[in-house]
Amino acid sequence: MESRRMHPGRILLSLYELVKNSAIVFIFLFVLRRGSDAGWVVAGRWIFIAAIAISTLNIILSWWRTTYRLEADSVQINSGIISRKHRNVPFRRVQNVNRQVPAVLRLFGLTSLTLETGADGEDASVKFPAITKAEAARIEEALDGYRKERMEADRPVTGSGSIGGEAQQMAGTGPLPGKIRTVHFTPELKDVLKASFLSFSFIALIPVLATLYSNIDDFFDLDSRAEGFLSFLTGSGIVLVITVALFAVAAIAFGIIRTYLKYGRYEISSDDERIYIRRGVLTEHSLSVRKKHVQAIQITETPFKRLLGLAEAKLVTVGSFEEGLEDISSLYPFLGKQRAVELVSELLPDIRVLDGMERLPKAALTVRMLRFPWTAMIGTLVLSFWGPDFPFVPDWPVLAAALFVFTYALRYFDYRNTRYAIRGPLVQFSKGGLSRETFVTRREKVIEAAVSQSFLQKRFGVATVGTTNRAKPVHVEELKDLPKSAAEQFNRWYTERNPELVRADEEAESWKTLRSGS
Questions:
Q1: Whole-prediction pTM value?
Q2: Does the UniProt entry include the keyword Acetylation (predicted)?
Q3: What is the pLDDT of residues 122-168, one digit of tens each?
Q4: Max CA-CA distance within the chain?
Q5: pLDDT confidence of residue 172
Q6: Secondary structure (3-state) at 97
Q7: How far apart are CA 516 and CA 119, in angstroms?
Q8: Closest by CA position to 396, among listed 408, 406, 409, 386
């Protein structure tokens, strides 16, 4: 296939970023110091103009000298103005596909596409910053075509050369993935309103106003006017109440608008092969992840969400996400717990949240209470040396005692909340003191399992178990103080995974090779 360049909109996007990043320097030199003839100001202006000119030229040349070409099994990228760099990224390394449509690109009907790999550093992703939606679809189709060819090639063939149905079932490949998407969740107005309050978005109005006040104060003397305004407010109770009410309404409206811009067009859908998550109104973000690459599910319940019966389910996947997009793998963070559990089952039939989990033995509580309270002890030492003396705050011995009480209360609640289940190919851990986190994964997704015992655990017949799953960074999950019999069951559960063992080891070796960048 022929080499192509990014859409010229890439130049406009880079210029927009350049203007945004240099706006503060421009305002300082050309607005705040507009009447200054000082030598360093004049020199700074010429240096600024030269830097902008060089940066603009670099943006144009960089766009012109960057090309890419799609091969049957890889994508090749050539970049660099003077020193040329040639990258060849095999499609087999691509784990997730992300799309972003910033407001600037939306004006021109463009999008950005990122192919995420499991490598580290600058090779972690392949970015197409500005391309048409048709071109993005072409790249994704090339990736899908490669995967279908691999799937077809990996199918067992009978002696007559046809695909054997029984062997096909044993291989677990099944038919080629379909492209019919099923929409599992889209938020209604009540969901957006609930999210705006539960995310406390309205509080964000305070720093916005503070920043606005600080910027305006650089041009106008607002301090003296603010003093007069405060005197006016405090002089009339009715005016003060009305002002506070108006501010509350403005904050709520701001929170609702801010939440709607982030979650208003939220959608979770799937087909036979992938899970799709889309969000954003002005700036649209979307994630496409293969179900095969989902390593585990994490369901998190903060204290406030537990009180309201809400939970957040998150996909633990192979590959990484761009900075600021780590939370896009979350399945809408304001779902009811039961709906979150159902959604996991709908998206991933092979992974389900188990009921009727086992509790820890009473010996586990004894072990937890006997462990040395490092945090409380260090906090006590800090308080004793610092000796804070604040009004309405108790003396440091009282604070230290409260810290110890809180530490041991948290250990008790953690003991009460800790559960485990080992059934068939699934293992599930649940733990947490005030908050609660549930982790569930399949045996073939675990690349390493660990069982350990400390001296104290040996005395009381309990042990610690842990799992390691492919992710970036590698996801390690640990559960302390299981009964020894459960730890032995966990060890057998992992080592007796007969038909899964070879496949998992091959995937683990492939993952190590991928991370090493070879």
A1: 0.72
A2: no
A3: 666 788 988 898 888 888 888 877 777 776 666 554 444 433 333 33
A4: 95
A5: 37
A6: strand
A7: 7
A8: 386
> What's the Rg (C-alpha) of the chain?
29
Peptide bond into 473 cis (omega under 30): yes
Report the amino acid identity of residue 138.
R
Choose from 118-122, 285-289, 436-440 the range with maximum mean pLDDT: 436-440
What is each CA distance from 352 to 140, 339, 498, in whole angstroms?
29, 13, 22
Name the token pair of 350: 């092979």
The two tokens of residue 52 are 């902008």
- Alpha-carbon torsion angle 70, 73, 78, 79, nearest 10: 100
CA distances from residue 271 to 209, 279, 296, 345 in whole angstroms, order as listed = 44, 18, 19, 14
By residue count, the chain amounts to 518
Per DSSP bridges, beta strands 335-336 and 310-317 are: antiparallel
Question: Could you give the strand order of the β-sheet that contains 462-469, starting from the edge strand earlier in sequence?
Answer: 446-452, 462-469, 475-483
Decide if pLDDT at 232 tops 80: no
Asked if the model's pLDDT at residue 178 lies above 90, the reply is no
The distance in angstroms from the start CA to the end CA of the chain is 25
Q: What is the pLDDT of residues 265-288, one digit of tens each?
A: 888 999 888 888 888 787 788 888
Break the chain down into helix, strand, coil percent, rounded to 5.
Answer: 50, 25, 25
